[in-house]
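Researcher: Let's continue the batch. This sequence belongs to Retrovirus-related Pol polyprotein from transposon, and it's 521 residues. Same format as the previous ones, please.
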Amino acid sequence: MERVLRGLQWQTCLLYLDDIIVYGNSFDKAVNRLSEVLTRLREAGLKLSAKKCHLFRTQVTYLGHIVSQDGISPDPRKIESVTEWPTPSSVKHVRSFVGLCSYYRRFIRGFAEICSPLHKLTEKDKKFAWTEECERAFRTLKRSLTTAPVLGYPDETGLFILDTDACDVGIGGVLSQRLEGSSEETVVAYFSKTLSKSERRYCVTRKELLAVVSSVKHFHHYLYGRKFLIRTDHGALRWLTNFRNPEGQVARWLEVLLTYDFDIRHRPGKQHGNADALSRRPCGDCKHCERAEAKEAEQDDDYRIVGCNLEKVYISPFPGVDGDPKLVVENSASTRQRSDLETAPPEVQSVKKAEQAPEDTPEEGANLDSGGRGQKPAWFHRWSDVELREMQIADKDIGPILLWKEVQDSRPDWAQITAGSPTLKNYWNQWDRLDLKEGVLYRRFESSDGMSVLLQLVAPRRIQEEILYSTHNHRLSGHLMTKKTIERIRDTFYWSGYRRHVEKWCRSCDVCAARKGPTRS
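Model: Same format as before. Here are the structure tokens for Retrovirus-related Pol polyprotein from transposon:
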């Protein structure tokens, strides 16, 4: 059937096995599209059952859903089987019930949290015991399905709004849309997910970030390639796009988000009822995240993690000199020297409030860190600006962005890059952070406190391996480990996926492997 209707699916009709639905926003368009589909079927020698055909309806039942001009809702006949479901008496019955309800989970806000007691019954080696909590979840699911809302259709002209939240047992998101000229928001879909045992031990900040990343990935087909708004009731996530030198899991999450174009806004919990399912508590006792981040917290020169609470820190290049208008960092070391060969930051001992004179405010685009950060390594000057520009223009992903930057200030339309590679789309999403200097494309990299602004050369493919070799393998580079190599490259260069490239490069380094010694069996 897919071969017969090739080219028409998603354009004039929808197809699932032998179920076909032809749609149109006017009678004439519906007739023309129906004619196209019938012609294809006739040419293939296929026949339709007249009893099963329903023509020119404003409301149809399709794949267990009622589809109408108002939106999509569950089929009441399917819901009856849920409401009449007897109390489960075994793990098998629980799985069957939850599986049926999961088909309509997009209509139920907080589905994963509601189902949590039932999911626990299906865990391995868990003794089956139907408790009051299970009964309450069972009844709540039935009630939620019978009162499920009608979900609206997405509109290409409207602004998508993604509300995310996390609780102790699950995460969730609500995708809604506000049409131009209207203040009313229409819900498009709900998303929820039960947290694994390890994820339940995350601190609140990490859970909330997981909720953002998971929700964005779930609604990828709605959000990719368009501007949208993320709303969260967790204030720390306002600094999401400014996290400095993230590592490990957080770095991977932020790399995923970099491919999307969004603004993030904090919304107090009282106004966040559509996604909020969480009673807040301090996360100072989160040992899981403490262990995961302890090492990088001691070395990080922009953030300190204390009981999983992120604090923005600006470290002055000289001991005793106040840096940030709001924060002062007292270094335990008597001197702090930063160079291309000595990049290890000192231990941060304490953080306290402070004032600073207005004249210390940085200028836009300046490389502010003294003592080496932002300064180009000596070998950088092997390339002239003319050579760098030529290599960037020749790069299939960087070249189009550079040439667009020269002729226009606004980001090109999505249609102009939709056929491009993921790398090109990544640069397109970062349009506002890219600048031209002497005809060469650079990326602005700012710390969250605004006191450090670096210009990173957007490195074309032709010189990426040379950068990796000079930064890690050269006899003056010292074969530093992955984290330090990433820091060195980040202070001067940028390209899409450079962290993954550094990790792979360091893993394949024979000198580093020999230094580690043989693994013990």
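Researcher: Any comment?
Model: The chain has five domains: 13-56, 76-146, 159-271, 287-360, 378-516.
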